[in-house]
Design goal:
This protein is of the alpha/beta class and 331 residues long. The chain has 14 helices and 11 strands. It has 2 domains: 153 residues, Bacterial extracellular solute-binding protein, family 7 (D-Maltodextrin-Binding Protein, domain 2, 3-Layer(aba) Sandwich), CATH 3.40.190; 133 residues, Bacterial extracellular solute-binding protein, family 7 (D-Maltodextrin-Binding Protein, domain 2). The strands form 2 sheets. It has a 6-stranded mixed β-sheet with strand order 7-6-8-5-9-11. It has a 5-stranded mixed β-sheet with strand order 2-1-3-10-4, sandwiched between helices.
Length: 331
């Protein structure tokens, strides 16, 4: 009797897995650029838990934080070639492969977390997803919201563009971010993310910019003293899946991936609101000094928008596209 019951249960389980479109256990790997404790890792954990639940525990997601599987641009290449399942990375490291995504990284386009969510989950986000599939061979299935990038340095308080002079600031290898610092009269130092902490520690670089949550996760308070709220970019970190691997999955598993990505995105947005102020207080308690730019950032904004925006109109799909996006935000 027990054997019959066991066999019957096995048949029911097998049938349910077949209906769900998952006929055998699957494990996906997710590369994460930042260290554990940051918003990228938080997004990854939420995605892993959601996908596991939606597939009745049949799909497992292994997370590899702190660039264990390569730097962020390498993971895009690997995913495009089907050598890696998923990657969570800064959006500026997607733009070299899909230039139109740069519209979300133009300085001072996004001015609040609400605007960031509106753009990524609305028509703009859908269009960018289609473009990344076409251009880069990866599909955006989720977003991490990390907050505005702020400037840190180990030398002195920075409130004006004049205060920047003489500082060596690390930036990613991203033309738009380099151009923004150029507009402020500085030649920044492009460095891979994996080299950044060491460069700051050894004072090869004086400063860098990232959101507060990333500063905390990377323990930059150990090698940086001053923070300036320049807020020129809202840091977005998409969760991308290899399009070739995505297309190999059943329709049911594809939908589970998309749904899990959306749930993780909503979690990331709530996580930012819950944690950013607490982290700022912790960084101050650790000895960092936070200040705002003089004159409400006016000189920073005017220099960046006047010089950088026109230089990237063609890359983002034309000035009209930017105007349309700004209009959708009420500007």
């Amino acid at each position: 009797m027990k054997l019959k019951t066991l066999l019957k249960g096995s048949v029911v389980l097998a049938a349910s897995l077949f209906v769900a479109g998952v006929v055998s256990a699957t494990t996906f790997k997710v590369a994460i650029g930042d260290a554990a404790g940051g918003t990228q890792h938080e997004l990854g954990k939420a995605f892993a838990a959601s996908l596991n639940k939606k597939t009745d525990g049949n799909v497992k997601v292994d997370l590899f934080p702190n660039s264990q599987l390569g730097d962020e641009q390498d993971t895009v290449n690997d995913a495009a070639m089907g050598l890696l399942d998923f990657s969570i990375l800064a959006i500026n490291n997607v733009t070299p492969f899909s230039p139109s995504v740069a519209v979300l990284t133009l300085p001072y386009v996004i001015q609040s977390a609400e605007e960031a969510k509106q753009l990524t989950l609305g028509e703009v986000g859908k269009e960018l997803t289609e473009n990344t599939i076409r251009d880069a061979g990866v599909r955006i299935v989720g977003w991490s919201y990390s907050g505005f990038r702020v400037l840190t340095n180990s030398k002195r308080p920075v409130k004006t563009l004049a205060d920047l002079k003489g500082l060596v600031i690390r930036v990613p290898r991203n033309e738009l971010m380099i151009a923004t610092y150029n507009s402020w009269g500085l030649n920044p130092s492009p460095l891979a993310w994996t080299e950044t902490f060491t460069a700051l520690q050894q004072q090869v670089a004086d400063g860098q910019d990232n959101p507060y949550i990333t500063i905390s996760a990377m323990k930059f308070e150990e090698v940086q003293k001053y923070v300036t709220n320049i807020r020129y970019l809202f840091s977005l970190e998409p969760l991308v899946v290899s399009e070739s691997i995505f297309q190999q999955q059943t329709p049911e598993l594809q939908q589970a991936i998309l749904d899990a990505g959306m749930e993780a995105t909503e979690h990331s947005y709530a996580y930012l609101a819950e944690t950013e102020n607490r982290i700022k207080d912790e960084l101050v308690a650790a000895g960092m000094e936070i200040s705002d730019p003089a004159d409400d950032e006016k000189e920073w904004i005017e220099a960046a928008t006047a010089k950088v925006w026109p230089a990237f109109y063609d890359a983002i799909g034309g000035k009209e596209r930017l105007d349309k996006i700004l209009a959708s935000l009420g500007r």
